[in-house]
Design a protein that fits this description.
By secondary structure, the protein is mostly beta strands. The protein is about 5% helix and about 55% strand. The chain is built from eight helices and 30 strands. It is found in: Cell outer membrane.
């Protein structure tokens, strides 16, 4: 989604019903359809810049959207975008490092901790640069035949920061990261990403035997390469680099579609097919990044973990809509999929709509759906440096095909299956007021989860089979993907809009949008027998909270816009409901972060017919999430490095942000 700039988008459509029987995998809860701009009548240039109230996070963006006609009815629309964003930092300031037992008055590190109460950490948005080109084009070959094409290239570079381990000077005896003879200046490993996205599609819309037909070919890929800096590999001693290419991944797809539809009196019939090939590649890092235990903070991907894996799938579908009367419609769809790696799937859907009158419509649907396990979940394997207890150690992710994982009795990944019930009503009063109310109930079985840490138990006198695997691979803990949990999600969406309310010399528009949802886990986690028998919980309370309570179950947006001559005033208030972080083992250490309201205010002014300006203040009242209460567990906030919640997601913690922009249209 992020690879398509906002300035290239005309509008976004949302299908709220489950749609796997029409579109295949990942459409369990609906579909998002992005409609790109087609205009050719003018060129639009937008310049934006912003900064937080704390003076960091400065950003600058520029967008250009333009187009031109081809012959009489064809067009080409293109969009260029650039963004440069600086980092923000909202790290905690403990003044001591409880995670590694370093007190504020420690004789070796005391001066450093006094001068760097945040332990030299950087917690916030990363340094980012982004450039993108989007092209959208169509050319009519005849009255009934049009060729179309779409292309997108997006390049992003980002720099974030790994965990700063305070007592690290002693582990740098060759002064690779610091000047010899100087006082300790902190250990600040960086984690850089280079991302290249590309997507291209070409298609033909025509009429065949009375059927509206659409043929298309689409190819695209996402490539990411990782670099770690300001670190070293201890086994290489004084010869160690301080920056490493640690490898990367590429995911690509090639898709062919053929779709047909035709209306016969009151019946609309459609059918089609899709052929897809997916490829996932893992590239090894440079040798220095993985030799020995590898580069500190993020060891390189080893040649033994490099891979190129692919799969094919074929899907066929059919849809039927029948207008029983002018007011009453019933419909349904069927889809069959065959994946080369995990097998077949059959999904179906029935739906209905009834117009009570010209202003009130009700609808309902029942559907089954599926989500194919991603190639990433099947084949990803790596080693990462993580915090466990009061130390830092390597944690390995074993892929689903690894003999070790197979030996644990972890089954081959298969598709998640769903049942989706949804119903809704829309209401209109005149041309200015609309309302909608939608209910949904989604049950997903065999969800693919990423296990929690599986590590040694507290009994040092015995070694169980799991500990033998950890010792054999010289790692502290391991993780893997597994189909292991069933969930039910229930919720309601309410949307109200009122526009063109005359207030003084201007017109007021009001909107209210809210979502209230609840999710629960059904039954027990499907833990492999060998792990269960040895007392391992593969999805503990903390991991379960990522599903149950890591995101707000309630969100409400109350917005207003007031148009007064050349000016538009915008006021939005968004309520983000509470979220709860659950401790892995001790419920007494759980924390609920209270719901908060964030206010955004902006003004747009039309200077001339071709020039406009806007100013926006996001989070006007500088609202932050609740501060973490560790309740005595130093790992909860990583020794005070994190001040605000980082394992649950409510809203950002950058505080107030000021943004200004200029738009030129010519």
């Amino acid at each position: 989604m992020k690879s398509i700039p906002f300035s290239a988008i005309e509008r976004v459509e949302v299908l709220r019903d489950g749609a796997s029987s029409q579109y295949g995998s990942d459409a369990i809860a609906g579909v998002v359809n992005i409609i790109l701009k087609k205009q050719t009548n003018f060129t639009e240039v937008s310049l934006t810049s912003g900064v937080t109230s704390q003076g960091d996070g400065f950003n600058f963006g520029a967008d250009l959207n333009s187009g031109f006609k081809i012959a009489q009815k064809g067009f080409v629309n293109f969009n260029l975008s650039y963004l440069d964003q600086n980092k923000t930092n909202r790290a905690g300031k403990p003044g001591r490092d409880g995670l590694f037992g370093v007190e504020a008055n420690d004789p070796q590190w005391g001066d450093y901790l006094k001068n760097n109460p945040d332990l030299g950490m950087n917690i916030g948005q990363p340094d980012t640069k982004m450039g993108a080109l989007v092209v959208n084009a169509e050319y009519p070959l005849s009255e009934n035949t049009t060729i179309y094409a779409f292309g997108d290239i997006n390049i992003r570079k980002g720099t974030s920061f790994a965990l700063n381990r305070t007592p690290y000077w002693a582990s740098d005896p060759f002064n690779l990261l610091h000047d010899a003879g100087t006082t300790y200046t902190g250990y600040h490993p960086t984690f850089n990403t280079d991302i290249f996205d590309n997507l291209g599609s070409v298609g033909l819309r025509t009429s065949i035997l009375g059927f509206s037909s659409d043929f298309s070919l689409t190819t695209g890929s996402n490539k990411v390469d990782y670099t770690v800096g300001s670190t070293w590999n201890p086994i290489l001693g004084a010869n160690s680099p301080t920056e490493f290419n640690v490898g990367g991944y590429t995911f690509s797809q090639f898709v062919g579609n053929a779709d047909f539809s035709r209306t016969f009196d009151k019946v609309t019939f459609g059918f089609g097919t899709e052929l897809r090939k997916e490829t996932y590649e893992g590239r090894a890092g440079q040798e220095e990044s993985y030799v020995g235990e590898g580069s500190i903070s993020f060891p390189g991907l080893r040649p033994s973990n490099a891979f190129v894996e692919s799969r094919n799938n074929v899907g066929v579908y059919s849809t039927l809509d029948y207008d029983v009367t002018d007011a009453f419609l019933i419909g349904g769809s069927l889809r069959y999929e065959n994946y080369s790696d995990f097998g077949n799937n059959f999904s179906w859907k029935v739906n209905s709509r009834y117009k009570l009158n010209n202003d009130i419509t009700v609808r309902a649907s029942f559907s089954t759906g599926f989500r194919a396990p991603a190639l990433h979940q099947i084949y990803l394997s790596n080693i990462q440096t993580i915090v466990t207890g009061d130390t830092v150690a390597n944690e390995v992710t074993f892929n689903n095909q690894d003999p070790i994982i197979v030996g644990l009795g972890v089954p081959k990944l298969h598709a998640e299956k769903s049942q989706n019930i949804s119903t809704g009503i829309t209401f209109r009063a005149g041309s200015n007021f609309t309302a909608s109310l939608d209910f949904y109930h989604i049950r997903v079985n065999d969800r693919v989860l990423f296990t929690g840490k599986i590590e040694k138990d507290d009994d040092d006198t015995t070694t169980n089979p799991i500990e033998e695997i950890l010792d054999a691979n010289n790692v502290k803990s391991m993780k893997f993907f597994i189909n292991a949990v069933n969930t039910t999600t229930k919720g309601v969406d309410i949307v109200l809009n009122y526009k063109n309310l005359q207030i003084g010399d201007g017109k007021l528009g009001l909107s209210l949008a809210s979502n209230i949802a609840n999710i629960k886990i059904n039954g027990q986690i499907a833990t492999p027998a060998i792990l269960k028998d040895n007392g391992y919980d593969i999805f503990d309370r903390k991991e379960q909270s990522r599903i149950l309570s890591a995101r707000p179950n309630t969100k409400v947006l109350l917005g207003a816009n007031y148009d007064l001559k050349k000016a538009t005033f915008i006021l939005n208030n968004t309520y983000f409901g509470e979220v709860t972080w659950q401790h892995a083992k001790d419920p007494a250490k759980d924390q609920t972060f209270s719901g908060k309201v964030l206010t955004d205010f902006g003004v747009a002014y039309k200077i001339t017919n071709t020039i406009s300006a806007n100013v926006m203040v996001n989070n006007l009242f500088n609202v932050y999430p609740d501060v973490i209460d560790t309740k005595g567990d130093v790992v909860t906030d990583l020794g005070g490095r994190f001040k605000y919640p980082w394992e649950v997601n409510q809203f950002g913690f950058n505080g107030t942000t000021f943004t200004a922009g200029l738009n030129f249209k010519f």
